[in-house]
Amino acid sequence: MSNHIQSVRGMNDCLPEMSDTWQAFESIVRDWLRRYGYREMRTPILEQTHLFKRAIGEVTDIVEKEMYTFVDELNGESLTLRPEGTASAVRAVIQHNLLYDGGKRLWYAGPMFRHERPQKGRYRQFHQVGVEALGFAGPDTDAELIVMCADLWKRLGIAPSLQINTLGDPESRQRHRAKLIAYFEAHQDALDEDAKRRLHSNPLRILDSKNPAMQALNDAAPRLMDEIDADALAHFDALQAILRDNGIVFEINPRLVRGLDYYNRTVFEWVTDQLGAQGTVCAGGRYDGLIEQLGGKPAPAAGFAMGIERLLALMETGSVALATPVPDAYIVHAGDAAQRYAWQVAAALRGAGLDTVLHCGGGSFKSQMKKADASRARYALIIGDDEATAQQVTLKPLRDGAEQIRAELARAIDYLKP
Known about the structure:
- Helices cover 38% and strands 21% of the residues.
- It contains 15 helices and 16 strands.
- The strands form 3 sheets. It has an 8-stranded mixed sheet. A 5-stranded mixed sheet has the order 13-12-14-15-16, with helices on both faces. The chain has a 3-stranded antiparallel sheet with strand order 2-4-3.
């Protein structure tokens, strides 16, 4: 039996080859968000537990079963590793009064934590990119969030499908809630344990059940859409019109309710059938009441979050491969004078903006050239004592089979620049 310490199950290492892919993905995301006017914010991974209970809802799978919560021994506070990003973002916006001069377009990225059974696309430490549009009330904001996603999918070479729904406003949900409770009470014998537990606390979540035995019962349940008031319906109709004008194909899914309590009006999910059971790659909607609920001045808000691991897995099934970085040059050197000069050359190349690997650890010329080739660098820069004396370098292309050349350092730098 091995005594090696292993990583915690469901919390994975990101090794260099995969890290290159992550960095390429993150570069695309940063450029994409900048083009839409979104600015990055960074919040702690630890928050007070009651933040998530108030924001997400106490009768949700996340709060009831999935949060990593512990008591801080120093002061007795209950702290939780963030299971999602919106609550933290809204807390920070309220704490720092970011809406004092109007709406804000914000985004964040980083690890989230949920204690659940690990499987493909579902991990205990996973990573999300989240986008929040705070202080904007209209359906055009909801539509822009969705159009943004469609734009990103094109850049990534993937094609998830879009489902949308409206949850209406609190008054219509209360009417629907009363009818749901009465309906499910009349069918108590058909309810599973989760449904019985949620019956009086959060009956809308019963409709989100993944239990196949519950589907027929849920399909016949009272429809929230039948209770939606005129303003919320007009909002939803306007959203659909903007999406159609922008060529966005969507399906209205009346059973799409989302798993978090803070949503109202628009909800949406981008889904795929190429990742098995974990088909949702991006989800979001409107949450107009959350800022006030967490102690801020009332303000509208909408946003979404996407799972990075799921998106990268989906990209593996597509036709677009993320480019991984390669060095411009790998410096090979032999001889004492060559080694000293090689350090100067490496500094000059890096100062000129060229990615440069300087060979370290000794070794024959042949072994160094093997490492240069394995580095995937565009060129090997060969320095012997002759080159050092002449203050020159020999450039050997490693990819296209061209002839090697010997040149002054300044000329070599110009040659190496893309």
